[in-house]
Write a structure and sequence with these properties.
This protein has five helices and no strands. It is mainly alpha-helical. The protein has one domain. The longest helix is centred in the first third of the chain and has 53 residues. The radius of gyration is 27 Å and the shape is rod-shaped.
């Protein structure tokens, strides 16, 4: 575990400006990472949608073109079971990926800041009172601003970590779903050609 170092003096204006600029960039970077996880989750959902659409189209063509005797009982049942497995797996992937979009509360460590950055902290302390928020902004010193950035960055980092775990789980599940999709396509091809 890291030891807390004593806080340096914040009287040097150039150093202080540099710290605040660095904290601002770090906060922006963390927010960008969170948006990237949201984009990845949307991509997973889109791929599942495309696979499902292609499967539906392919299935309808096979059903329309294959002569009825080609629907052998065993192959038909196997395709039906694989289709159900695919639909359940697709739902699981979409549920996992869409859980990334759920709103998360601020769970960051408190660094003693005034709560001026993170929206839930602002709402909790000031509600809709813009005057109260403005007053807090006007009296916040540089040390309070840096503490606020520290709390907001750690809270955002925890949100990013949770989203990343969920996206990784959705991508892993999508790999399995792709295997089921390929097996189902092979079964449908067999249904169309055997007879």
């Amino acid at each position: 575990m890291l030891q807390r170092l004593p806080l340096p003096e914040l009287h040097d204006e150039a150093a202080l400006r540099g710290r605040i600029e660095y904290a601002t960039r770090a906060f922006g970077f963390t927010q960008e990472l969170i948006r990237f996880m949201d984009q990845k989750a949307f991509f997973v959902i889109s791929v599942v949608g495309m696979l499902t659409t292609a499967l539906g189209f392919f299935t309808s063509v096979i059903i329309a073109l294959a002569p009825r005797p080609a629907w052998h009982e065993a192959l038909g049942k196997a395709a039906g079971v694989a289709g159900l497995v695919y639909l359940v797996a697709a739902f699981a992937v979409i549920a996992t990926a869409s859980s990334v979009f759920m709103a998360r509360s601020h769970r960051g460590g408190s660094a003693g800041g005034p709560g001026l950055l993170f929206p839930l902290a602002v709402a909790g302390r000031h509600g809709a009172d813009a005057g109260s928020y403005l007053h807090s902004l006007l009296i916040a010193g540089p040390d309070a601003m840096l503490a606020d950035y520290a709390g907001s960055i750690t809270g955002s980092a925890l949100i990013y970590e949770l989203k990343q775990r969920r996206v990784n789980r959705a991508v892993q599940a999508m790999r399995g779903l792709s295997l089921v999709w390929m097996a189902l396509i092979v079964l449908l091809l067999l249904v169309a050609t055997v007879g």
